[in-house]
Amino acid sequence: MRDQPGPGSRTGIREQWQWPPTLDTADHEIEAFQDQVFSAGAPDHLAKHNDGVYEFALGVLDGPEQDQDPACHSESRQPLYQAAGEQMAFTMGALDARLDDARTGRLIRMVVHAQGAAMYTVAIVPSNYVLGIKFTCGEAVAGGPPLPRIGKIRKADQYTCSLSDKLRKQLGLGTLNPGGWHTEDQWHPPPGDLPRLHRQGPDAAVGDRLAAALHPRSLSYLARFRRGGMVAEADLLADPRVAYGRSPNITAEEVRLYYRRLSGGFAEYARQLARAARDAVRGRVLRIVLDVEQGAVYYYRLGPADYLIGVTIVQESVSQADDTMGELATALAGDADGGGRNAGANARVNPESN
């Protein structure tokens, strides 16, 4: 894991808070949260949500790592963060049910990455979640890393997943490898010939870009949609290396149609998540990750009513596939607008603009 959370604690912190005001600091769960929230690079806000109940939250109100509007860190905003966390937990449960037909396991991690912050929801066990918020500039800049490699966003994601692992260990359970962070350094050789490559859509140039990003051990499905219509689609779903483990009664075309329908409707899911997150994060939602037990579905906003969807079914490759998505989205957005970036980092989330 290249960016694995390391030792060290935040420096220069002048104030921290907790909710409720009195917490049993001897409790093993709360102790694990405290250890994490005071670690350098951790989310600024961490909370526990269990079976519909918002149990407790810990946060840091001031510190040199916090480079966004200080109002984001005000203790008075705790009710807003609680409301957003409850909505995210509810939405994660609903999306888990919608992803069931993919037969790739439960939804174990969700990332909502906006212009002014990122929210993380990571399952400990079903209906039991760690919620994290990192307040930082979430936009990619010219010459900088793509969205998933923005340092503070990535580090906070890893810390939230690490906390879930610790809490599962307290229950005697092993890791689900959320984010694929435990296998981040796994290398895949070039895929070689792709005789079972499928392509569809009116834009051949975009189709070329999508096809070039596919790999049987990483991204196996990619599609771009604009104003409700498919621009291009490319996949390796008929490749034996991708179909391995799939029931022989399920054809590549059936899987393709499922992901095409999911992709075509993802604009509505993005609006739902934007509405759920808007009390906690500022700016447009740029990136969404729905991480299941066997892979992930990725959404990247390219422009108004224009987005990219990617799918991997290999859990060990979730972080690498996300990096590839970030690079591809940057290239496609550059093709469309000459390299421009989404503006308005301090605007509140507008659910209708995603």
Can you offer a commentary on this structure?
The chain is globular. It folds into two domains: 168 residues, Dynein light chain 2a, cytoplasmic (Beta-Lactamase), CATH 3.30.450; 156 residues, Beta-Lactamase (2-Layer Sandwich). It contains eight helices and twelve strands. It has a twelve-stranded antiparallel sheet with strand order 1-3-2-6-5-4-10-11-12-8-9-7, sandwiched between helices. It is α+β, with helices and mostly antiparallel strands.
Major sheet description: 12 strands, antiparallel
CATH superfamily of the largest domain: Dynein light chain 2a, cytoplasmic
Which class best fits the helix and strand makeup? alpha+beta
| CA distance, first residue to last residue | 32 Å
- Give the C-alpha Rg: 20 Å
**Helical run tally:** 8
CATH structural architecture of the largest domain: 2-Layer Sandwich
Q: Care to count the β-strands?
A: 12
What is this entry, summarized?
With 354 residues, the protein is α+β, with helices and mostly antiparallel strands. It contains eight helices and twelve strands. The protein has two domains: 16-183, Beta-Lactamase (2-Layer Sandwich), CATH 3.30.450.30; 198-353, Dynein light chain 2a, cytoplasmic (Beta-Lactamase, 2-Layer Sandwich), CATH 3.30.450.30.
Features:
354 residues, Beta-Lactamase, 12-stranded antiparallel β-sheet, 8 helices, globular
What is the strand and helix layout of this fold?
Elements: E1 16-19, H1 28-37, E2 45-50, E3 53-60, H2 78-98, E4 107-114, E5 117-125, E6 128-135, H3 151-170, E7 198-200, H4 204-213, E8 219-226, E9 229-235, H5 240-243, H6 252-264, H7 266-277, E10 285-292, E11 295-303, E12 306-312, H8 318-337
Antiparallel strand pairs: 1-3, 2-3, 2-6, 4-5, 4-10, 5-6, 7-9, 8-9, 8-12, 10-11, 11-12
Helix pairs in contact: 1-3, 2-7, 4-8
